Amino acid sequence: MTTSVELSNGLGMPQIGLGVYLVSDVTVCEASVRTALQTGYRLIDTAFAYRNEAAVGRGIRSSGVPRDEIFLTTKLWPSDYAYEKAEAAIGGALERLDCGPIDLLLLHQPVGDVQGAWHAMEEAVDNGVVRSIGVSNFTVDDLEKLLPEARIAPVVDQVELHPHWQQPELLPYLAEKGIVAEAWYPIGHGSKKLVDEPPIVSAARAHGKSAVQVILRWHVQRRFVAIPKSTNPAHIAANLDVFDFQLTPGEMADIDALGKDRPMFRMPRWLMSAVLPLARPRPRP
Fold first, then answer.
1. pTM exceeds 0.85
2. Residues 6 or more apart in contact with residue 188 via CB below 8 angstroms
3. Residue 118 lies in a domain
């Protein structure tokens, strides 16, 4: 079972969850969510842009896990950011998920009418249909624009984050503001350049774990939230099996030292054309 981090509103958020980005086959998505929950996961992350919210909801309802044990996240897309559109989009997400209140609702990208959407999200919290609100892919500059206008502060910023891209400007700012960093690309899509890094390989051998498990453990010890995606039941189970060992301070320092000066993610062209009617900055998970 995963450990949790405490959000600024007092809610506990599991540190390891299942992401369902690019799980477009709704039968596979539903089965993956159900498997993850039955394996011990308690955090599920989806989005309007992933086109699988209804499948996620079915997976949750068929899992046999009590809903109040599950932390469910979804996201609004920029085409729904104006206040009235955001209000309707929140209603649509609640209907598709059909799982009661949303535990965390994020703005998916820092473009469009961010303020209008944020006010609609704040009202959703007031009305009890959303428990927490946050952002995704927001930089320090983006947050500096949002925070002065926000009545309810974001509790999470979900960004690309892994040992090769450690967000050197953003992470200190988030810590100062009490915003939890959540990694949507926690293992760099299994990049060999990352998993074959000597400090990661060495730690994996020392602890009898895989390189992926070592990377996820690094996220846990840095107090991040990580949402690795998998539809393979064995991989789903392995990704959660990171709570029976601890990286030493030296191992953590060696992995910390792997940071590069740029992110590695590139958005697939088909997804950009399918879900980004505003051809603005490249969308991310």
1. yes
2. 162, 163, 164, 165, 194, 195, 264
3. yes
